[in-house]
Specification:
The complex is a heterodimer. Chain A contains 18 helices and 15 strands. The chains are: A alpha+beta, B alpha+beta.
């Protein structure tokens, strides 16, 4: 969102289409349906219409009968929705621009950015570059919760050119990538790192390690330089574990399968990608310190030599970290840089999604952080808006937000082929809601509002059969209400008749 | 139609129009609401939320603020093609020029820019020398020096080059990165002439006032044309300074030199005008409060005790060219460059003003 956009803020970043205000499936109702439908311990919101229709077996009895009736008679059972009204006023951009200019206080910077701040996004993400450096390895052969004392230490590892990405305003997410040279342009290539506790998209999994830093030594996030060095150094000081797969694991596995399938020859790898070859097929003397201490590893190595297989591809994820870090620690900096360069060039040999996931253009990285910022920003603003509503309580005409409960009776059964709902919530809402119903509901809710009736205390019941809407005081929980509704009124689904509000209200 | 209630219809319309993303045309907010927006705005808006992406920047960017960017560069060699003429007299066929290769110590650049309708225009750039990276230094104790180069005002502000066409502006990316590249080019790739020589002049003056071997020239540097009232030095003097500069043997040793202190004023120093501001203070400090101006032709007065004009000018120079740190310079930038980006009067010196006014009167 930019100052130049015509809109200052809004509550939801989804396109609301023709249906305003926003409807969502009532959460309790959704949980009820999904728990029932999947029989799992956790609800899923990815159930599509076909699943609901074709998997009646999983429904609880009372719903199952009703769903069968739906299939046979093309009548839907009642649906609970939340209807959210956000009466947020917008203001002209020019007014905001003026306010913004008026607000600017010209003060000298109190601190400087990190030395190589190469890019700052409009939402405040910093991209900071660091030239190659060497670290001490510290990898625990186990998960974070493991009490194992097996560690890979006493080795040094070269880290190539890095970019580190973070937003001091949202200090929850950090990304970093490797490259074989300094950032040159938007097409500059980066690769997901070979360091443990890193996702393939470059995100760092800090788990709770960052929160272990004493509170009083946490940097002020407004001091970008200090903040950056603390987080960056904290991560590269080690303490890694095998919670996550190594980001390079999939690529190595795929190379193995391509080699075994004779799509790529080992000789080609050897001639065109010599450093990669020495990673895939390490000499025994290189690995001797590891093999001598671990007979199973030696056994595996011998097996790979015999057939031959890519040694790394034969290892479980925990050992993969251990071995790849060890092999890489035997490389000097030029070899590390060349390895990365070779992997970039692999695209000429293998054209695979795995390789594409691992390598990134700078412009794509920027796009992804902007996209993330877009979502985070809206989320953040929404939280701040809540505070702002409270702050602006005296001026209800400026910010007003409320929600109400809505029960749809006899919703229409005409399936709209052009509706492709993304989740169960949008399935129900987009499937059932019509413009006429929408206007009637808005009219009723806003009438109540103008009559100083709090819509949040009401249950609005819209009957598609009669086209009428009524509101009633809601004095029981939705869950109990719906259970009672179903048990009392739909125990015999074969005698379904059009319903009225009086039929279902307690 | 069932829903003819005007209040409700307008409410419904407003909801719909709100979500369509257009400016709110029907219900403009009142002043009291703007106050609320202002408070709200403060909450959600800090740093870069409402600016545009910077583009890919070179290493060394220290800070980006409202309409300014600060960056530093490490010691480096630069080539300067100096044309020994003022711009109006330059004949590219015949004007004498010379190429110098000078070592530079750490440099700090402060560039300001304006944003008109989404197009970013670099507005000014200042450059200062430092003995070390300010990033690694104590900001409050690191002195910033005036680069003794032609085309700089005595306060470190570059005399902005003239644009030959719009390509000079639009060939840079329309972001902070473009400002950095443009302003760097202004200094190092836009040609150098003798339009302004007050920065090298300050080197001579301050070297004379503070004899030390840490300047690139000696205190005995000779240029008989220089006085306290000068703001221009000869091409020979500039050449001598540049040659002395070239003789520094390495980038390491250039960082050990001392350079002149920049002037506080956001315009060139003019002894005749600026010194008068310091006279009362000087007289009081020296117990000469009784001194007053008089014209012997009309007054029968005793003008003693007279004050030492040279001593007074030394006092003025010391007052104006105090050592400056980053905060001092930034306060000047903020109070001068950024408060009114459209202001251009500081480039009009008193002489050109008087010439201009004379030409007006002649024309009339």
């Amino acid at each position: 969102m930019s100052i130049n956009s015509s809109y200052l803020y809004y509550f939801d970043n989804q396109s609301l289409g023709e249906y305003n205000p926003q409807y969502t499936l009532d959460r309790t109702f959704a949980d009820y349906l999904c728990y029932s439908a999947t029989k799992n311990d956790h609800p899923t919101f990815d159930i599509d219409r076909d699943f609901l229709v074709n998997n009646l077996y999983y429904y609880p009895e009372h719903l199952k009968k009703y769903a069968e009736a739906y299939e046979n008679n093309k009548i839907n059972f009642p649906v609970f929705l939340d209807i959210e009204f956000n009466l947020n006023r917008s203001v002209p951009s020019s007014a905001i621009n003026n306010l913004y200019r008026r607000r600017i206080s010209l003060t000298p910077p109190q601190s400087f950015y990190p030395i190589a701040t190469r890019y700052i996004s409009d939402s405040g993400y910093f991209v900071i570059e660091r030239p190659p450096f060497q670290i001490d390895l510290d990898y625990k052969l186990g998960r974070a919760s493991s009490r194992t004392k097996k560690r890979l230490t006493d080795r040094k590892l070269w880290i190539p050119w890095t970019i580190f990405i973070f937003n001091p305003k949202y200090p929850q997410g950090y990304k970093y990538f490797f490259s074989d040279s300094s950032l040159l342009n938007n097409d500059h290539k980066y690769i997901s790192p070979y360091i443990p506790n890193t996702y393939i998209n470059g995100d760092i999994c800090f788990s709770n390690s960052l929160s272990n830093i004493p509170q009083d030594s946490l940097p002020d996030s407004s001091d970008i330089s200090h903040f950056y060095s603390t987080v960056f150094n904290d991560f590269f000081s080690g303490g890694w574990n095998s919670d996550l797969n190594n980001p390079w694991h999939s690529l190595i596995n795929q190379l193995q399968s391509r080699i075994l399938a004779k799509i790529i020859s080992k000789d080609h790898i050897s001639q065109t990608y010599p450093i990669l070859h020495s990673l895939l097929y390490p000499q025994e003397e290189i690995l001797q310190p590891l093999l001598s201490k671990n007979s199973k590893l030696k056994e595996m190595y011998d097996y790979c030599q015999k057939y031959p297989h890519v040694f790394l591809a034969c290892l479980d994820s925990q050992t993969f970290h251990y071995v790849i870090l060890y092999i890489l620690s035997t490389f000097d900096l030029p070899e590390i840089l060349q390895l990365i360069s070779e992997i970039f060039n692999l695209s000429t040999t293998i054209n695979s999604s795995v390789h594409k996931d691992l390598t990134h253009k700078f412009s794509d990285i920027v796009s992804s952080i902007e996209e993330k910022a877009e979502n985070t920003l809206h989320h953040n603003i929404k939280l701040t808006l809540d505070q702002a509503i409270e702050y602006n309580a005296d001026d209800a005409t400026f910010f007003t937000g409320f929600s109400a409960k809505l029960l749809l009776l006899n919703p229409p059964c005409s399936y709209r082929q052009n509706v492709r709902p993304r989740n169960i919530s949008s399935y129900w809402t987009s499937y059932f809601m019509t413009q006429e119903a929408h206007l009637a509901i808005c009219h009723k809710v806003l009438s109540d509002l103008s009559s100083e009736i709090n819509p949040s205390d009401r249950l609005y019941v819209y009957d598609f059969h009669s086209g009428t809407i009524n509101s009633h005081l809601l004095n029981t929980s939705i869950y109990n209400y719906y259970l009672t509704l179903m048990n009392n009124n739909f125990s015999v689904p074969t005698i379904l008749t059009p319903l009225t509000a009086a039929d279902v209200l307690l | 139609m069932k829903y003819r209630n005007s209040f409700l219809v307008s409410r419904l319309n407003s909801i719909v129009s709100d979500y369509t993303g257009y400016d709110f045309k029907k219900n403009y907010v009142s002043n009291s609401q703007l106050v609320h927006i202002d408070s709200f705005f403060d909450k959600i808006c800090n740093n870069n939320n409402f600016s545009s992406p910077t583009g890919i920047m070179p290493p060394g960017v220290l800070a980006i603020g409202e309409n300014y960017v600060i960056y530093e560069r490490p010691p480096q060699y630069q080539n300067i093609q100096l044309i020994f003429d003022q711009v109006d007299n330059i004949n590219y066929e015949s004007s004498r020029s010379k190429l110098y290769r000078i070592p530079l110590p750490w440099q700090l650049y402060i560039a300001t820019y304006a944003n008109f309708d989404g197009q970013i225009y670099p507005n000014s750039v200042r450059m200062y020398f430092m003995n070390s990276s300010i990033h690694m230094s104590d900001i409050s104790n690191t002195p910033l020096y005036l680069p003794p180069l032609p085309n700089f005002f005595a306060n470190g502000l570059l005399c902005r080059p003239m644009y030959s066409d719009s390509e000079d502006i639009h060939r840079y990316s329309n972001d902070v990165s473009g400002v950095i590249h443009a302003t760097y080019d202004w200094i190092w790739n836009s040609g150098t002439n003798l339009d302004l020589t007050m920065a090298p002049l300050e080197l001579i003056r301050q070297a004379r006032a503070n004899p030390t071997d840490k300047y690139i020239i000696h205190s005995s540097f000779e240029d008989p044309t220089i006085s306290f009232h000068s703001y221009y030095i000869s091409a020979q003097s500039v050449n001598s300074i540049m040659r002395a500069w070239e003789s520094i043997d390495s980038l390491v040793s250039v960082c050990d030199y001392v350079w002149p202190h920049p002037c506080s004023k956001d315009r060139p120093f003019y002894a005749m005008q600026d010194s008068s501001e310091y006279l009362d203070e000087y007289l009081e400090i020296n117990g000469l409060s009784d001194y007053h101006d008089c014209d012997p032709d009309y007054e029968d007065c005793n003008c003693s005790p007279e004050y030492d004009k040279d001593d007074f000018m030394h006092y003025v120079m010391k007052s104006i060219f105090q050592p400056k740190n980053f905060q001092n310079i930034m306060n000047i930038v903020i109070s001068q460059d950024l408060h009114d980006l459209s202001r251009s009067s500081y480039v009009l010196d008193p002489l050109s003003k008087s010439v201009y006014e004379s030409s007006i009167s002649l024309a009339n």
